[in-house]
Amino acid sequence: MGKWRYGVILDAGSSGTRVHIYRWLNNFKARQSDDLQKLRSLPEIKTKEEWTKKIKPGISTFADKPERVGSDHLDELLQHALDVVPETAVKDTPVFLLATAGMRLLSDAQRAQILNEVCSYFRSNSGFLLPECDIHIQVIPGETEGLYGWIAANYLLGSFDSPEDHAHGKDHHTYGFLDMGGASAQIAFVPNATETEKHANDLKLLRLRNVDGSTQEFRIFVTSWLEYGVREARRRFVAAIQESVGSTDVNEYPDPCLPRGLRTTLDGAIVDESLEEPHLLGTGRFDECLRQTYPLLDKDAPCADEPCLLHGIHVPAIDFDVNHFVGISEYWHTTHEIFEMGYKDKAYDFNTYQQRVSAFCSQDWGSINLGIAESRWGSKVDASKAQEVCFKASWIINMLHSGIGIPRVGIENIGASAHNGTKEVLQHGKEKGYLDPFQAIHKIDSTEVSWTLGKVVLYASSQVPAVEPDALPVGFGSNEPGIPVDFQYPSVELVPGPGPVAEESESWHDALFGGESPRRIPGLLLFVLIIVIALFFLCGRTRRSRLYIKMQNMFKRGGARMRRKYPGKLSFIGRNGPSYERVLEDGAAQFELAEADTDSDDDGYAADSDGISPAHSKRNSYKGSATGSQTPGLKFEFDNMSSSSIGLGIAPANVLDRQGLVVRTESREHLVPTATQGSRSRTVSPTRGRKSPMLKPVTDE
Question: What Gene Ontology molecular-function terms does this entry list (predicted)?
């Protein structure tokens, strides 16, 4: 495994799918840092702007053709990820596709078909790490999306790693998080100490792990409002306009949230002239737009668990004296893409923002079209964004101030606010440490604030080995001691192995030769020893023998003592032991085993009345064979030679071991007649560990 770990996250939203690629140091490398602050921090996640790619529409549009979601939609994003992640790292890189609000609106069967096709396509067309589809490919609840966003925002703002720099008072150092997409909106924050105790059962327990193995825990409230995203809110608004007219004969419906004179179809397509079919006509009355969008908040819905904010959903009381919120996605795009031109102050000011929106939306459509052509509001603003911005602005203003209760900085007396608003006056958000009640953001230190980053932070944190054997795992679940039943792990890996010894090394090469590796010296010695042993066995018996003799000469003075201590050589060094090679043809092409006498039943052979073992009574002649019966007293007979004239008195230990294996023989000249020529007396009994005085050494060629 290399120096870097990678993660691929696909955000399958309602309007499109976006791939995000992140990387971080593997924990073995990260722990080699000498910076104590980094060791006590979460893994450092890196990304680049070009590593992100988005395509439209969302995967929910493939509900009627799920088999095409891979080839027609995901292939481009998958190839982009494979181009970024090094080939050697692909198999260790997890891939996640997490779908949000758009997929939540489909039926269970439609969702299952699309997700199954996504999983099959990923496994067939990439080698990314995908151990279990149910964890890596899924539709995440709005609460999970909000929690991931909260992690991302606080990670980039630095409140995890440097809490002392973000003290808001009352022992509080984190930021609240707001997100709004096309279909849903989320809120996540840590209540003050009083609300945390009062609503403990409504909170989520989040556990993260630092590089050094220590943990951080947070108790967060998070909830989501489905159909409160800008696209779904607009759909509900148009339906409310039609219902308010109360007549089916009307084709033209006045819309105060569209610029004056603009005509669109009910689903938002711009038309040039009046239509016979139902359509909308803009009146450009922003104050009326604010008034008519307010009922969509459903503030009067029954609240089963007080307090509630929107649609009867319980939310603990927000203490704006310590809870400072940042908002992303539509909160950023709607407040900045049009209305930031010519203004240096990016902090959110209700009074200033509402003045800018009113001035823009009161223009007729012709003037706005001219401004678009002149790039008066920047190159990113086109006709589609211009027609939508008035409704979006009114919806966001109502959500923030009438719905969630963010103080109206610049208009309201914050000190008298029922929400205990902050005491700070409006300044640049970053200069103040984002201490305004609300600040819309898009990037922090050039990194986009996306909930996908929160997912990667959680995953990378889970890969850090724990210091203590009984350490609790990384993840989130109900606010209960230990590991609750609904605890969600970042991936299929559960609890990583305890202790630093379980950490992962980037590669055997780096572990052995890395300059800062604690295993460098012993690992290098072990590597050299393995090489020496391998060369020793590969050099051949002859060279080993010569090496052995040279070593004996070097230690000649202590040779006698060593011989007494080690009377025999190792079988793979010397020639005393048996050789498992064939007898060479030169000079010994044919031989046979002659009769042999024995006076014992050694090795399992019992002598008969004639002094010959039963096994030899059935003997056969063997031509050119290197093996024979297991008989100690064997004689060789060669062609044109009489066994009575030449007796081979070679010590059996040098010719045959007790298993009947023949020593390597290269020519007849190596065999010397014994002193007892012509006799057929028994050969001497085998003697282990002793050389025959009649055997000349074989000369190696």
Answer: ATP binding; GDP phosphatase activity; ribonucleoside triphosphate phosphatase activity; UDP phosphatase activity
